[in-house]
Specification:
CATH topology of the largest domain: Nucleotidyltransferase, domain 5
Number of strands: 6
Strand order of the largest sheet: 4-3-2-1-5-6
CATH architecture of the largest domain: 2-Layer Sandwich
CATH class of the largest domain: Alpha Beta
Radius of gyration: 19 Å
Order of helices and strands: EEEHHEHEHEHHHHHH
Number of domains: 2
Shape: globular
Largest sheet: 6 strands, mixed
Length: about 260
């Protein structure tokens, strides 16, 4: 009998997370970044975990709302952080060393983190992010396996970790969230071997391109139903115009994954 094919989750994994000044990946800036490399050891041994974290001075004020989430203030970033240009270059160089064709990069909501890093590289160095391997986005995979049911179905990292009974330590720190993303990816691969774990990572990457497109179009459809309800109640106004533009933007950006085009 042939031995079953090993899961990519049993091999080396890399995980990335960014904490930022706000939620627009093209406009806003990186505050902290973590890259976690997980390398298996022998049977029964804990894997080797290498965590590298950078604190950047983003060059702009960090809004109080962002500080309330990740705990880094403008003063701390200016006092303790390194220039953003140095940080983004080092993060990209380190990723290029550890993110390989057979070593997937795990990132929860990868379209945000990778687009943000790509935008920062273009801003400071005039070059984009080199995508040196496949991506596993636990959020995209989870939404495929458990389709979103409505506006109240929140798929935050904490909520997804709770669903799969995955430990989330030091939430809203880049290191804690990166490790949690890798743990969720491992749980998805283990619980769903045929749909996730036994796929070649490159095939899984390509499937996520299609899954993301479907998910974003469904989100746009929900927004469109909301827009139609508002128009039926009061006609078109500035708010409904913005909502209509947002629907078109969501559909347009859904065509690329894991990098989201600029406006």
């Amino acid at each position: 009998m042939d031995n079953p094919a090993p899961s990519w989750a049993r091999g080396p994994l890399v995980a990335l997370d960014l904490e930022t000044t706000d939620v627009n990946p093209h406009r806003d800036r990186i505050v902290t970044a973590s890259v976690v490399t997980i390398t298996p050891r022998g049977p029964g041994e804990r894997p080797e975990v290498d965590t590298r974290t950078w604190l950047a001075d983003p060059g702009v004020d960090i809004p109080a709302e962002a500080t309330a989430i990740h705990g880094i203030s403008t003063d701390q970033a200016r006092r303790e952080g390194r220039p953003a240009a140095e940080v983004v270059a080092e993060v990209a160089e380190h990723l290029a060393r550890v993110w390989r064709p057979t070593t997937p990069l795990c990132a929860f909501h990868a379209a945000f983190d990778l687009t943000m890093l790509d935008a920062e590289l273009r801003r400071h160095h005039g070059r984009g992010l080199a995508r040196t391997g496949p991506v596993v986005d636990p959020l995209c995979v989870d939404r495929h396996l458990r389709p979103v049911r409505g506006w109240d179905d929140k798929r935050t990292l904490a909520a997804v970790c709770a669903h799969y009974r995955v430990r989330l330590d030091n939430a809203h720190t880049s290191a804690g969230d990166a490790i949690a993303a890798a743990r969720v990816a491992w749980a998805l691969a283990t619980r769903h071997p045929d749909e996730v774990g036994l796929l070649d990572p490159r095939e899984l990457h390509e499937r996520q391109v299609g899954w993301y497109l479907e998910q974003e179009h469904e989100y746009a459809a929900r927004l469109e139903r909301r827009w139609e309800q508002r128009v039926a109640r009061g006609g078109e106004d500035e708010h409904t115009d913005r909502l209509r533009d947002r629907i078109a933007d969501v559909r347009s950006r859904a065509r690329t994954w894991p990098l989201v085009p600029a406006d």
